[in-house]
Design goal:
single chain; about 500 residues; Rossmann fold; Hect, E3 ligase catalytic domain fold; four-stranded mixed sheet; 15 helices; 17 strands; globular
Length: about 500
């Protein structure tokens, strides 16, 4: 670095409406040309692409740049093509520029030179205000255009599983192998009466992936089941992008789409009817919004209300959840019962392990609910068949040097354990008719607990999957901090 030169960070941002802006490369060239002309050395480049500028917190490179600019070895300037690239929200612009000025870092727009003198800051504010006004107007025009397209049945979002865009401006076309997955999901939900969680586990056991190449979760299945695209419709304006809030249904636009249907309208309607009856209890939060795999299960020992999770951070930066009584926060409970996830996680796992170690467990027998009815024999048989494919894959990974011998042995042992569990469940089903209750269902209950425990301690399952697995066997967990006692209310459905 030449110590005689002033220094700068270069910042580039392109939103989703790229046709209205300079490309990232063009912005970089303009900034570099200006820096060279003014004998300024650019130390590092930062770039946010395809991201709205309205909320600076959504821009990862921007946040990193601001953080580095606050350090002792900060640059003299931050160079950007336009002030609107730095921020379109004037409030945030003022906050971040003030913060930078405390460290003697100046933000410069290379295409919007400001005059020297007392009116410089005023002109800068006017430029920012005009950019914000233009952004608001543009957003309104874009929204009106998209609304008109939606009304005509044009597809405007990323196509879901089962479809792909071949030509821009044309309706998406069906991907046969993915469409088969979609049909399987609707069939197992409507005709097989399987739950979202069981469908997700079944698909994962077959090695199938979502359109993003990830494992299926309960929410993945729920989204597919609710998506009218699959019966030839389009749904638009359902969600508020900034917050992921589901809008009121009267704000949605649902119209006949231009794409080919994957399933019949009758099958889609049947799925919605079942969904309405089963999965829409009043006031229940979707598990996808939970902050921990214990969310929704922990209850206050005094008032019985749910302990809600707040994300906390330790001194070393490690994040954890703190559960506190919702009733106390609303003045409806006398005592502030709460517990850290660092404590309760270990206690819950310990309780499960003690139950498995003692082969003794207290649980409630329940009549099976309509949504839990499924062809268990078929499901278990399919999962057993899929284990052969898993074995082939781990063997190939070992041969190709991807996994070590120890990893291969560990994975092989896990598969063997899963096979033993599935074979026991299948044998149990063969021995008992659906109407017959076994003399002692405890072994079945313990087997379920063992399966859930394996899911909780595995890194292969998401937070949501672990949460849903727990809800297959646990109604609630009551932790009393004063007496340091934990009570888990287990349940088991009749076969």
């Amino acid at each position: 670095m030449n110590p005689s030169l002033s220094t700068a960070f270069g910042y580039i941002r392109v939103s989703t409406h790229m046709q209205e802006e300079l490309s990232p490369d063009a912005q970089k060239r303009e900034i570099q040309r200006w820096a060279d002309a003014h004998k300024i050395q650019i130390l590092r480049w930062f770039q946010d692409t395809g991201i709205s500028g309205k909320k600076a917190s959504n821009r990862s490179d921007f946040q990193q740049m601001i953080s580095l600019a606050k350090e002792a070895a900060h640059p003299d300037y931050i160079l950007t093509w336009k002030f609107s690239r730095f921020a379109r929200n004037q409030e945030e612009s003022i906050v971040y520029k003030s913060l930078l000025r405390k460290n003697n870092v100046q933000v410069i727009s290379v295409s919007e030179p400001l005059p020297d003198g007392p009116f410089s800051s005023l002109i800068e504010r006017i430029i920012e205000w005009m950019d914000e006004y233009y952004s608001i107007r543009l957003s309104g025009e874009v929204f009106r255009g998209m609304k008109e397209n939606a009304t005509r049945g044009a597809y405007q979002a990323r196509p879901p599983l089962g479809y792909k865009v071949i030509e821009r401006g044309k309706p998406p076309v069906i991907i046969p192998e993915e469409a088969a997955i979609v049909r399987m999901i609707f069939d197992k939900y409507v005709n097989g009466k399987m739950s979202f969680f069981d469908i997700a586990r079944h698909l994962n056991s077959l090695g199938l992936k979502t359109s993003h190449g990830k494992a299926f979760e309960r929410r993945s299945i729920e989204y597919i089941i609710q998506n009218p695209s699959y019966c030839g419709m389009i749904r638009w304006n359902r969600m508020e992008n900034a917050t992921n809030r589901i809008k009121d249904q009267d704000e949605w636009i649902i119209a006949d789409g231009m794409q080919e249907a994957i399933i019949s309208k009758e099958l889609f309607d049947a799925a919605q009817e079942r969904l309405k009856k089963i999965y829409k209890p009043v006031g229940k939060r979707p598990s996808s919004t939970y902050k921990h795999w214990l969310s929704g299960l922990l209850k206050c020992p005094v008032c019985g209300r749910t302990l809600t999770a707040t994300t906390m951070k330790r001194a070393n930066g490690e994040k954890y959840a703190y559960f506190s009584c919702y009733g106390y926060s609303k003045g409806k409970c006398d005592k502030p019962h709460g517990v850290s996830s660092l404590v309760i996680e270990k206690e819950v796992l310990k309780a499960l392990e003690e139950a498995l170690g003692s082969n003794s467990i207290v649980y409630e027998m329940r009549e099976i609910r309509p949504q839990e009815l499924s062809n268990e024999r078929t499901l278990i048989s399919e999962r057993l068949a899929s284990l052969k494919g898993k074995e082939d894959r781990i063997r190939a990974s070992y041969r190709e040097g991807i996994d070590t011998l120890e990893e291969y042995k560990e994975n092989k042992a896990l598969i063997a354990k899963e096979r033993d569990s599935l074979e026991r469940q299948l044998a149990e089903l063969e021995e008992n008719t659906p109407d017959k209750i076994p003399d002692d269902p405890t072994p079945k209950m313990l087997d379920r607990v063992s399966s859930v425990h394996d899911i909780l301690v595995s890194d292969s399952y998401s937070l949501v999957q672990k949460n849903e697995a727990l809800k297959q066997i646990i109604d609630k967990i009551v932790y009393d901090r004063e007496s340091d006692t934990l009570k888990i209310h287990f349940f088991l459905y009749h076969s």
